[in-house]
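Incident log, structure service

09:12 report received: a user says their structure output differs between two submissions of the same chain.
09:20 pulled the input from the user's history:
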Amino acid sequence: MPLREEKGFTLVEVVVALIVLSVITIAVVTIYNNGIIAIISSGKRTEAVYEVQAKLERALLEDPGEVEAGEEPAFTIVFPDLEPIEIYAEEVTAESDTTYGPSQRKVSAVVYIPKRQGD
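09:34 re-ran on a clean worker, output below:
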């Protein structure tokens, strides 16, 4: 029986097919792995945001008090052709204990709680 009449794949064809299959598999696994890492990082960031939100809500429950004589405003809002508006407030900063991402970032926020104006 001559060699040319046999049916099947040559060793070279099998090796090429395995290389192509390996490259495709590596690409799919890399994309899947990056997706999993992004999902985990997003979850940790969300957890950190909720943590900061809880800290700020606890701070909002506390009474910032009244404006004291001689106290400087926290900030001033200026509109063209109008009198500036001075805002007296307590600055509250909160930072998460939870970190996220490869650089171990933290979530932080600053809010101003307005003070009562005395008569």
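09:41 both user submissions now match this output. Likely a transient worker issue. Closing.
09:42 reviewer note: The mean pLDDT is 88. The longest helix spans residues 11-61.
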